Structures are given as structure tokens and as C-alpha cells.
Amino acid sequence: MPRICIVLLATALFARADLAPAELDAKLAEGRALAAKGEKLRAFEAFEAVIRGSDTQGPKFAARDEILKMGPIPPRPQAAEEQALVARRLLGERHRYYGDVMDRLAGKGQLRGVRLFRKRIWADNGNGAEDGQKQALRDLEMRILNEPSKEDKELHLKIKQSVKKDQWLKAADEQEKRGKKHVARELLKDAYHFGGIAGEAEREKLRLRIETIEAEILDAVSPEEQKAFDDAINHRVWGDLSTRESHHFIFIGDKGYLPRIPGDSILLLDLAYIFLTDMLDNNPDSDGQRITIFFKELWNFGGGIGGGKTIDIGSVDPKAKSISVSNGLYFHELSHCLFDTAMIYRGFIEGVANFGATMALECTGLKAEADVSWRTNLEAFRRDFLARDMKYWRIQNYGPSAGFWLHFTDRYGTPDGVRDWSRWRLFYRLWRAHPLPPDETVEKTRVFGRCLARVYGDTVWKDLERFGFPALQEDAEKTAREEGEIAEAWREARKLLDGGADDAALEALENLWVKFPDHHLAARARRAALNVLSRKGDERWMQKLRRELGIVMEWKVCGPFHSTSNTALQDVFPPEEGVDYSKEYASSWGKATWFDPKIRFDGLVTFEFPYPDGIACYGVVNVKAPAAVDGWLLIGSDDGWAAWVNGTLVEKVPDDRGYIFDHDRAPIRFEPGWNRLLVKIRNAGGTMGFAARVTDRRGRAIDGIEFANDPFEIPWIQDQKPGKAELVWKDDFNAGTAPSRYLVPCGGWKVVNKVMWGTDDKRNMQWRKFVVTPGKEKDAPAQCIWVKDKALGDHKDLAIDLKLEMTDVSRPKFEVILDGEGTLDGLSGISLTFHPNGEGCSVRLEHYDHFVYHNPQVVFPAAKTHDLKVVRFRNRMTVTLNGQPVFENISMPAIRTSHFIGIATWNRAVGLDDLAIYRLSEK
Length: 923
What we know:
about 900 residues, alpha+beta, Neutral Protease, domain 2
């Protein structure tokens, strides 16, 4: 499934020309002369102009050295707009901290204290209703009023049933005197609505009395709640905050902390800003507003977050002795601010920041730190991506994706052993200048390859192919032509469309797809023509174009299916187990049924259900192929999608996004005769739908292909079962030396009464290595064993029988790993993880850290011993627990590059009683 592993830069090619060598020399001389006269600010600006005006590293580094020799420079004072920005940042931090305190109060049911904060935040924002603040306050107040204690509820009901209506007001008076204001309120409301109160004056009097007692209920704040509010409002931190400026930054933090930041460190941060903005051709403070860096003492996060024009640093100790703003953390967060990008795949969000930080470390002269960053990122790329059986669009955040970028400098950009970062400066300018920035992710990959090849040479195409990217050297010709005739043809057609000249536009579009039949714009041109023809009502020509595009119009759909755990894409609903149009399926909000969907002229299927957030729906079509054929499934979806061909998983993409024609492309294979294509769409919120087309590998419709939605069996869908099981590993854990049979990367194990128990409950294993969530600790296993025996080898068809003992069935937290790497990484293979969940557990099945399948509720009976069976045969998996199915015959391809089998536990509540591993075969 294609995913672009680059950044989409939104602005046009920077128009300023680089300086000629003589001009650079003159500018350097000018800066030196100004520095000699003590005019530091003007000298700094001259040297900055050299860095920004040179397309090679030599003059840049010469100017850098002059700036460092000159030392810190006097900053410019804050402009009025910057002062306003600082004020907003200070207020925002107050409100963020108030939110932390509110969460703690809400967790204890102290909602009146929460109300104090909500009222304060609303007042701080001018008592406006922005962002629903007023409504949120009112909702909270209604919750307080409408959630009396169980005792008050029972008392109200008892009085209402035992006292006549004309006595409800008197009963309310009595309850109010006793301090039972909730009960009094309910009785007053009963009297108002059902008590037969006559006359508007009496009713108004009663209404005002209800309002008064409601205000008293809301204002009944406990001393503990009031103290929490007062302490937060009057926290010492607010009075200790101050600001400090540099040439490109405004620092916000403790008034004793800021002056202790070394001026030389601030100067290096300014230099990092200059080098990064020059590389990216993006200078965000050109509007006069600098980036703000907030050192937050009250934010419990040992790192930072950057974006836009703000950087936040958490867990700052105002009394720290060693302070630096010129290191990988600050350069990483600065890169988040400066990469003016729309990430096509989220794995590169942190990767480009690591890449930018490495570049900034080296360009500011911090060579030792740069070397460490360089080495660790490249190692992560090679170890955690290249060495793994992983599709390119899933490349991980931080090290792996940063190492991908660094690879090209490492291989092609180190003449004489010196890393040349100026090549990337050219890359970004080429990318911005490309005349046809494509919407489709796979096409962006091709353009990315073209720009890389222009910078580093055609060998990069081989690298991209080796990395699994859908970018081949023959694509170079396509992108080269895009800079000329194709771009001109497309622009002319678009101009005619925008001008309303439909007939001329149709002619121009047809000329484009006839002249360039294999270019991706041929499909886009036909799609644009469909839009025109739909207005004209020319159904005959539309049918012809849909056939040429391979658009599927014959869908049968089923839904909605609801998930109680926001995992609708991963939960296995009935259509994944079999297609039967006559069936109805129970759902949280009614029934899920099969029906004919609403399909737009271009194949877009839309789902329209009340309350659609978090639901999943399916579409199915039968595909008749004249012969075995390898093709493409091109799909646009709103939001995430999954697809199966003949029951075999094609891909599962969890992205939240809007619909784009041909957004993704995935390889598929059809057998001769009838095949079944099943698509699943998960809605994150709002609108929901998808469109798909099926083509050959050239992007053209497959000759002789047929689509139908008639209900009939597909011969290629079958439950294959092994014919032979050969025992290759057995352990009944009778011997106290049992742990020595295994590779134990962390934690500990001990055999007690013929059961092997974990001895640790700390988070020792690596877990979601490339995911960082501020303020949240990773929930990693405590200990793990890996089977060392080589009898299984790289055989992927296997069965595992595992008998477990539980000391506490409310904590059945454990993991079984297939195809693991035998390391500390608990997600280094196919991971089957059991998590406590109410009366049982939820089960996740993951490919590395890619969440593929989920069972939200598996019952764990209150027994001491439990039997888990895992069978994988021909890339299908079946999992049972105590004989009940967890997953049945689901498609889950094995990992080809690693072969360890592991078991991990989170605590001492799960023990291993018996383990048997079998090698499976057909005969």
C-alpha cells in the first residue's frame, strides 16, 4: 500500500537568487569590518545573508565561524504583536495547568471544584462562548444538579410516593431545612411541572426559588476543592515568569532561570534557525514575530513539543545549574516549527525533526553530538526498518525515518569524508518547483525519487526500490515530461474547466489521456471528464470512462458496525468471516444489514447513518478475471480502510482523513474465474465513504474483467487445515532449571511447584520504541523468554499449546510473540497481547507495532488453569482460549526475517504450566 515518505511543501519556489562567489566574499568582508567596529547586530545580519545566499557549504561555514567568533549579539526588543503573543502563551499555560488540576478533581468526583476552574477560564476568555466553553460550563452544572447521591434519589422517590401533590412544596421546605438541597430541588421541580400550581405569578415565584436552590447546590464547594482552586490560581510560578529575547527567539520561563541560559548557547540556537530555514527555504519570523520557547515548570513531561511558532519544554527545574538550548532536543523541536509540511505518512513527522536536528548540530559546529545523532539514526533505519519485513509506508518515527533521509547524504553526499548538507537545500527547492504536485501518495513517491535523482544521481532509484518504495527509474522519464508538455496540457485543461468551457475542456482532457495513457494524470483527466459529463447527463460516455478507469460500481454494502473501544477497523465483524446477504447482524444501535448503496457517478460510495462516529461498514464485489493477473487496487477513503482479496488481507490503513481520488495504491492478485474483493471503511467522524478501482500494473483497466454482486461462493476462499503436526519443543517446567533453556533478555523467572513464574513487575522491555506520548509512561512487559531451539528453523506453519496458571484472573496480562527477534523489543514480531478488561480481557494482534486485529472482550473464567492455542497455517491464524474462539482463520502473513517464539508477562500473576510447539505441514 503506497504511502509517501516525504514532506509536502506547500509554498512556491523561493524567488531570491543565490549570491555569486564575489558577492559572498564581499559580504563576508563587510561583516568582518562591522564586527571590528563593534557593530555586532549589523555584522550578524551580513553573515546571515552569506549563509542564506550560498548554495555550497564553504561560505556558510566561514560565516558561521565569524558569528561564533563575534559572540552573543544584542537582541531586538519585543514588538507589540510579540508582546500579545507572549500574553496568550502565559494565559494558555495557566489554563493547561488548570486542566491538570480539574482532571484530578474530576477523578475524585469533586465537580464543584471543576466548575470553579471552568468559570475562571470562561472569564479569562472574556465570558464568550468560543470553543463551546459556555456550553461546557452549563453541561457540567447540569451534571452536578442531576447527579444526586443514591441516598438522595431514594429519599426523593419515597417522599414523592408517600406525600400528596399539594404537600410537595411543604416537603421541599422541610428537606431544604435539613440541608437536603438536591431532594428539595427535585420536589420543587415536581411541584412546578406536575403539582397543579395555578397562576403565572406563583409559577414564576417557584421558578425563581428553583434557580436559587440550584445556585446554592452549585456553590456548595468543599474546603478541599476551594483549596485546590486557590492554590492553582495563586501558584508561585505565575509570579515568577519572565521573558528574554534573542535574534530569532523569545524565551518564557522562571525569572531566575532565563538569565542563566548561556549566551553562547542561545547564539548556537539562532544559528541552527538560520541553517534550517535556509535549507528548507522557510523563514517564519519574516513577519516580525519570533518563535517562542516556554520553559514549563508545571508541565510533567521530560521532553518538548514544537510546531508553528511555539516550543514547549516540560519538567523544567528553575534551579538547574546546567542549562543549554543548543542540543538535539531544541534542534528537534525547532525542526517541527520549520518544516512547513503536510505529512503524508505520520511516521515522518518525528523523522524529519531528527534529520533536521542532526543537520543543525553539524552546521552549528557541534560535531561530536552530530556524529552520535548521525550514527544512532542510521542504525535505527537499518535495524528497525531495512532488516524487518515491513512495508515502506509504515517506516517508524524518529530514528528509522530520520536514518532514511540521512542515508542519501551518507552514501552520496560525503565527498572527502565531509557531509554536504547543501544537497538537501537543492532538493527542497526542486520539490517546491515541481509543476504538478500530485494528490495521490504513490505519485508523490515518484516525484520524490525524481528530485532525489536530480540531486544525488540515478542510483537513488535502486536505493528506493531496495527500500520497498514504489518508485522506479523508469519513472524519471515521466517526471521529466511533467516539467514540460504534460504540465502544460494539464494546466490548459484545468483553465478551461475553471472557465466553464466544458466542451473544450473535454477535448483537452481526452487529448491528454490519449497522448499519455500510462501517466497518472490520464486517470485524473478521465475523472475530471466524468465530472463534466455528469453535469451534461451523458451516461453512455460516463460508462465508457468508468470501464476504462476500472471503477467498481457493483458494490453491495453492509453496516453499520459499532465498536465500544474505538477499534472498529481492527475489530472482526461478521462480513470478514463470510458474506451472506440474507443475514442481519446485531449492532449497538440496531441492526447491520446488507443493502445497495448510494454510488456517485465516479464510483464514490457514501454511507449515511445517524451517529456515524467510530462505526465500520463493508463493501463487497465479486471480480471475474479472464486469467491469473497481478494488478492494483486504487482506493480513496474517508477515513481508514482495509481490504481482502479471497480472504487474504491486502492492507489495513488506520488514517483519519478526507476522501481523495486514488489516494492509495495496493498490489492485488486475482485468480482465473471469480474472486471476492471485500473492503472495510472505518469512520473517525463526520462524513464516510470510499471509491475503488481495479487496474493492471500499468494503471489501465484489466481486459475482460467483470464485476458483479450476486451472492455465490468463491472457490479460492477456503479454510486450509494442516495434515501433520510434528512436536519440536516441549517443556512441562518440572525442573527448577527450566529458565536456563530460554533466552531471557530482561526480568526474571522462577519455577515454583512445576510452574514458571515471572519475578518482576517493572516495565523492563522495549515497547512502542518510536512512540512518545507526553505525560504517559509506556505500558511495557516486565519479563520475557525466547525459545532458543532451532528445530523449528524458519518454518512458518506452526502451532503453540500453552497452559497458563493465574493467581489473579483480574490481571491476565501477557503476550505471545511469533516471528520475534529475540531481543528486548516486545513488539519485534507478530504479537498476541492479552489485556485485563472488566470480567475478561481484550486481545490485540499486531504486526510489529501495527495494530491489525482486535477482540474487545474474551471471558476469563475464575479458574486457576487456562489453555491457549495458537495455530498458523498458510498465513491464516486461529487462536482459542479455553476452547472459545479469540480469532478464527484470520489472514495474518508471517514475518520472513525473524524466527523466535516468545512469551512475556507484565506481573507475577501469570505463570507458565506447560508449553508445546508443533511444526505443521499438509501431509
